[in-house]
Amino acid sequence: MRVDTLILGAGAAGMMCAAFTGGRTLVIDHARAPGEKIRISGGGRCNFTNLGTSPANFLSANPHFAKSALARYTPQDFLSLIARHRIAWHEKTLGQLFCDDKATQIVAMLRAEMTRAGAELWLSTTLADLSHDGAAFTATLDREGRRETVTATHLVLATGGKSIPKMGATGLAYDIATRFGLKVTETRPALVPLTFTDSGFAPLAGVALPARLSNARASFDEALLFTHRGLSGPSVLQLSSYWREGEAISVNLTPAAPLFDSLRAARQSGGRHDIKTELARHLPTRLAEHLATEWALSGRLADQSDTALRALSDRLSDWPLTPSGSEGYRTAEVTLGGIDTRGLNSSSMEAKALPGLFAIGEAVDVTGWLGGYNFQWAWASAHAAGTAI
Ligand code: FDA
Q1: What is the phi/psi pair of residue 16, to 5°?
Q2: CB 163 less than 6 A from any atom of ligand 1
Q3: Please, are residues 67 and 346 in contact by the beta-carbon 8 Å criterion?
Q4: Helix (H) or strand (E) holding 48
Q5: Ligand 1 centroid vs 22 CA: distance in angstroms?
Q6: Which pairs from 326-330 meet CB under 8 Å and 24+ separation?
Q7: To test the ligand 1 pocket, which listed residue (41, 78, 99) has its Cβ within 8 A of the most ligand atoms?
């Protein structure tokens, strides 16, 4: 069979790309259903974009690479698309847009767009062999037990990253890219909970509060959640993309303002209760109790000196913790790193050294923050490649 474009991966980027390519397009995926990550995303409602999308919301060895594609396909463009498909949406917080109803509406929309563009989709299909003869790619495919040979002028790598292997994530895009001379930067789990051995956090599992998490490279003010194995919640997932093994992070448990003035005022107006009780007025009780034990806080508030209150306030706004690791690809929302952007044209996503080869979506070394940015990159990079083809 001969096609103009063969797209590997029917996820967010692959399906979106097929809506733009024109000519004869075949999309293949080893899964039984397309867009599985879209289906489960955003708690089943898909945080499909972010109104505040800018290149600053992405990590990449080349921070300029994403600019062109993001500028040419914006959140407003995606909103126009979903308006045509009558999908209702709402802004949750921080510019994050979600479906009112179900994430599967986005999958159905992309399927409909593929059909409109005349693209074909083969599911339960794996790549057995791939070659390039200087003019075209020849792929040997296993389609539900049958062998098929497909020749294509353009090959688009859209098989995503390594996160959540249970959902079918593989390193196929990296392997093919490497085989055709592209480089792949170091990959690691990102947007992932951080773990602590012997942290004593287990009794705190389920405690949540607003916090500011920081290290030397980034700082995020969002919810923090204690888990049985460590820390999670949006602020932790965000910072995990900037964290490296062995490094400490700083947790500010009183991000609105340091507690010193308020502790002093409480001492002045009585202060007969103990310091632990006072702490529980500002923090969830279980956390206040944990910190009181950890930091050996005892005695009445009235007996605390200014120096002691200042030290406590400072500690609450800069609690240094050193994670022992992360939950890894098992639960990571994305993969940091990927196909080195230096080998790709930023306006078309085409490999500089091998015209006809394209890479889009999470497979590329462009990783968004939490909050709809990763889908926006999938849409924008897919649009860049699809329209270039
Ligand atoms: P994606 O992973 O979507 O698609 C890759 C496709 O390739 C899959 O269909 C897979 O089956 C297929 N494939 C892989 N290996 C293959 C092989 N060897 N052979 C054949 N097919 C193969 N982002 C966001 O912006 N908002 C959100 O709300 C969320 N929520 C979210 C929740 C969870 C639980 C996860 C894991 C991730 C998110 N994300 C997110 C991230 C987002 O899902 C992700 O960045 C995009 O799906 C990436 O799109 P791609 O098309 O590049 O890869």
Answers
A1: -65, -40
A2: yes
A3: yes
A4: strand 47-50
A5: 23
A6: 326/189, 326/192, 326/193, 326/194, 326/195, 326/240, 326/243, 327/189, 327/192, 327/193, 327/194, 327/195, 327/229, 328/189, 328/192, 329/162, 329/163, 329/164, 329/165, 329/169, 329/189, 330/164, 330/165, 330/166
A7: 41
The finding on whether 53 has its CB within 6 A of some atom of ligand 1 is: no
Decide whether any atom of ligand 1 lies within 6 Å of the 170 Cβ: yes
Inter-helix orientation angle 75-84/104-116, to 10°: 80
Nearest-5° Cα angle at 294, 288 to 296: 95
Q: In ligand 1, which atom is closest to the CA atom of 11?
A: 4
Cα distance between residue 191 and residue 372, in whole Å = 12
Which atom of ligand 1 is closest in space to residue 37's alpha carbon? 43
Give the pLDDT confidence score for residue 270 in this predicted structure. 77
Contacts of 284 (CB under 8 A, 6+ apart): 207, 208, 209
Reported confidence tier of residue 271, pLDDT bands at 50, 70, 90: confident
Residue range 153-210, pLDDT digits in tens = 999 999 999 999 999 999 999 999 999 999 999 999 999 999 999 778 899 999 999 9
Measured from the Cα of 9, ligand 1's closest atom is 7
- Does ligand 1 lie within 6 Å of residue 372's CB atom? yes
Q: Nearest residue CA, atom 43 of ligand 1?
A: 37
Residues of the chain above pLDDT 90, percent: 96
Q: What is the DSSP string of 172-237?
A: HHHHHHHHTT--B---EEES--EE-TT---GGGTT-EEEEEEE-SS-EEEEEEEE-SSEEESHHHH
Whole-number Å distance, alpha carbon 160 to ligand 1 midpoint, is 6
- Stated as kind and residue range, the H or E segment containing 6 is strand 2-8
Nearest 5 degrees, angle CA 85-CA 30-CA 32? 55
Contact 27, 120 (CB under 8 A): yes
Q: Rounded to an integer, what is the distance from CA 241 to the centroid of its chain? A: 9
